[in-house]
Amino acid sequence: MTSRDDSPLPADDLAPLVNQLDELNRIGAALSAERDTGRLLELILTKARAITSSDAGSLYLMQPRTGAGETREPARVLRFAVAQNDSVDVPFRFSELEVTERSIAGHVALTGVPVRIDDAYALPAGAPYTFNRRFDEATGYRTHSVLAVPMRTPKGAVVGVVQLINGTDAGGRVTPYSQRQEALAVSLASQAAVAVENSELYAAIQSLFEGFVRASVVAIEARDPATSGHSFRVANLTVAFAETVDRADAGPLAGVRFSRDEMRTIRYASLLHDFGKVGVREEILVKAKKLYPAQLDLIHERFKLARRSRELGALQRRLDYVLAHGREAYLERLPRFEAALEDDLARLDAARALVEAANEPNVLPDGSFERLQAVAETVFADVDHPARPLLQADEVRLLSLRKGSLSESERVQIESHVVHSYRFLSQIPWTPEIGRIPAIAAGHHEKLDGTGYPNRLSAPDIPVQTRMMTIADIFDALSAADRPYKKAVPVERALHILELAVADGELDPDLFRVFVEARIFDRWLVEPFAY
Known about the structure:
By secondary structure, the protein is an alpha+beta fold. The protein is 52% helix and 10% strand. It folds into three domains: 17-202, GAF domain (Beta-Lactamase, 2-Layer Sandwich), CATH 3.30.450.40; 223-280 and 413-523, Hypothetical protein af1432 (Orthogonal Bundle), CATH 1.10.3210; 293-404. The chain contains 18 helices and nine strands. The strands form two sheets. Strands 1, 2, 3, 4, 5, 6 and 7 form a seven-stranded antiparallel beta sheet that branches. The protein has a two-stranded antiparallel ribbon with strand order 8-9.
């Protein structure tokens, strides 16, 4: 390596330069690895001060002006992002600088040219910028040397300014910044610009993905308005559950720890656990009773026709009787005609009441099936059918369900939503850090004893993340007041039902103990931390 006159550098100068270049490489690697923007900015300023032996410094980011209207060129300002000072305490205060030549940082941001000042109180003649002494006057600090460099991306855009103050020598004395220090600072600032740009892009992608996930959940739940909010509540509970388990320092769960990426995985898997409902017919998703509404409407119409048919039949019999026996005999027999019609209509009303009671998703009492079969065998006459049955075979089959609102085939379709969830979620190119989302989400109906679905997994094959989600999912299903086929149960009753499932070997007893003792259920409606 040579100096500007192409003569070799002295060995005493070469070794420190090599060390500084090695340090720059290490700094670049560290900046590339940091994704948190706040920590990244602190790291940039810390490393810039270290490599230039600076006592203090600040970092400004180029940002749109707060509240700026839509213009052809959006107004930009320098936002004061980070400040560090080894000599005095620096309370952080939010502030913005105009991007003009009136300030040192503004001048650097506007021109993209570094500024190196030996004494801030004695600026070079003709300098367009001034030095603001208010901080020095307020704290008693004395700013001497200043080095301000632009954070410039490879495309030439200035995304911020690093301003370093009071470079020091090996003895701690304040000295002017050298050209070499300026070159090092410029190089580091360029790396920092790329890191900041990548960090902001990563944050934007995260925000975009977060919006996509939320929009997907809203779209899914719009198909089943009765359970709207379920996915968000399950996510709230599961994230709170995971945070509590992660803090456990004793007992069987003491060794369970979740990284930041694993917490994000848990949250997204919980939000999307019912994603597969998009593959289930909507009429089954929203089915609240044993019959579909259209089926019940047809049955009601048949009962109306049957009632009118019986009334017309009764009138015809009366007319035939009066024509055959005369008025006096008819009037004498009239009470019997009326009583017969009332009995006939009462039986019809009782049959209709039986159908409506059987349609509820409750447990059918003994004898209901036989009574329903009798109703199905009851016929009436209409224009096209002289002996039309009140109930069709498929209607009798649905009304005869012992409990719940779903037939076996419908239940299979509902249960298929977890298979759809896995298939759909597996199509998304998740990053390796959150790649387990499909498997964790799709297992929330599995049981530790192998009686769950869809794959009848047993305890060794069900991850702890899924086990937590399962408890949260069942609790919400029991406690939510938005299910049309059942009433919400009190928290105590919901916990008792979960306890019975634990006793039957279906749910994890250690996790359930944490769920109860830490009162995770109190986090039911609390917005979870956005990992």
